[in-house]
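Quick look at the format.
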Amino acid sequence: MRTGSGRAGDPPAAGEQAEPAISSPFATTRWVGWHGDLAAWLDRLGWLRTLSDWLTGVLGPARERYRDNPVLELLHGGRWVGHPLHPALSDLPVGLWSGVVVLDVADRDPGPRRRVDAAGVLSAAGILAAGAAGLTGLTDWTVSDDQDRRVGLFHGLLNTAALGLQCASLGSRVAGHRGTARVLGAASLTVTAAAGYLGGHLVFTKGVMVNRVAWATGPRRWTRAMQEADLPDDSPAAVEAEGRQIMLYRHRGRLYAIDNVCSHAGGLLSRGPVADLTVTCPLHGSRFALADGCVRRGPASQPQPVLPTRIRNGWIEVRGSQPAPRRPKVGRT
């Protein structure tokens, strides 16, 4: 009996029946791509765009005025924390309000009680944590861009609605209306979960607030970047070596090479100003030392990778942080 080659798309052999196509509602575009459609739909909402532009006009100048303030940088997380604060703080109200729902379900006493029980304590603690998470989230929102900014705003509005529901739940609980408090608490957690999903979309799908150069290691060998004569002193230059974008800078005869893609949001550092051997990202104002890449000012929380340099035969050559391993000699054990 003749068999097929095993390659996809081969016609069935003679006398064989073609296998029926496997159909599943989860294999359709409707079910697979709904999250992308949701983000696109949110981005098209006119009122959301208007509100985003208005908030940008109000908060943008304020952030520019106080961006050298260490408190503002700490709200981002910045160099002291090493990553954004908002994701960590946002877990607190989710966990605390989940505990509220669990305690409400486990409570078998339906009678009214005019006091703050254990569920009420968790509700109040979650409200305080939500305030801190909201403040850090708003700070991070001011350094977002384009569609991310609008989806992030809707994420924040949902969290604000969830906070309002939780406050109403706590008030009902204190007043002794436990049934109403339970319903409002469950509704608050539901809205919080929806907001959390949008937050996950921003981080894991769009890469917001992640280190943009975490996997930058090449080039593996010394690679020509540009001719030495083409790099004037005190003038940043953008080059590309084996697909990696690099910023070159020379000051008093010393060469500096740093990853040109800002670790915070992907801005090109070569387009920003350089002063005192410190480059400022043109997007959100993060500052990095050219000598070692350390963060001099946030919102960036991760240092910028630096690359070794050398001059050979009139060319500036660069190499990544992880050189290629040497090949073993033939016959060598």
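Next, a different chain entirely:
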Amino acid sequence: MQIAAEVAIERTINIMWNRHAEPLSLEELAEAAIFSKFYYSRIFRDVTGTSPGRFLSAIRLFMAKRHLLETAASVTDISYRVGYNSLGTFTSRFTRSVGISPAKYRFLARCGLPPLSLPHGAADQKASTVTGRLHIPESAGRVRVYVGAFNSPIVEGLPQSCDILDDSGPFHLTVPDGLWFVRAAAVATDAEPGPRIRMPRLIGSGWPVKVRGGKAYTSDVPLRAVTPFDLPILLALPELDGPGTAALPELETDEQEAPLVAAK
């Protein structure tokens, strides 16, 4: 039964990737899985860790990053290409999820994103620590591992706390009270050049950690290969988002961001 459910969920995820610009409804996706929409929503969350709506939104924003980096289309055109009918809504969600606006992302990715450099976390005496150890298999090649604490299962925006490792070893995060999702991505440092989005070589996730009172917690994060059920990484990372040494096409000039309008 579990295998059949995963096959059905993977089928609907493929639909999201192939038809992300369309106004896909929960009913339509559930019908494709041959489930009721309530059962579909529950099984989808069990398999992926998030809702169908959040997964589709992550796909749309990931594809927007790809269009921004690999094409010369305007931000306005790209917002429509990935399923938004409001430039303001698209810009707001992109900025929140990627950490920078679409126009700034395009500019920085074109020139080369700066390294992600964050403190381990808040220096508050009541802040808690989350530690663990990462093992990077030799088969992964030359990689850099980003480990962050996020307030949702989706790797988006800037993490509350981040640690960066270039080899196997312990990581250390400092976070305030709350529920945190520890996520890791091993990205190649020897990727071939080219104006494109690159996928991480390995990803990992620990159990959600609910911290309080300045205590110490442990959350091991095993690294594994990416599967179709994994959310795309939206956080802009220099090893994943960048043109390398290849030239990008000339960009159009209508990059001004419109004021927020009614949400889609």
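The helical segments are 2-18, 26-33, 37-48, 52-70, 75-81, 87-98, 102-111.

See the schema section for token definitions.
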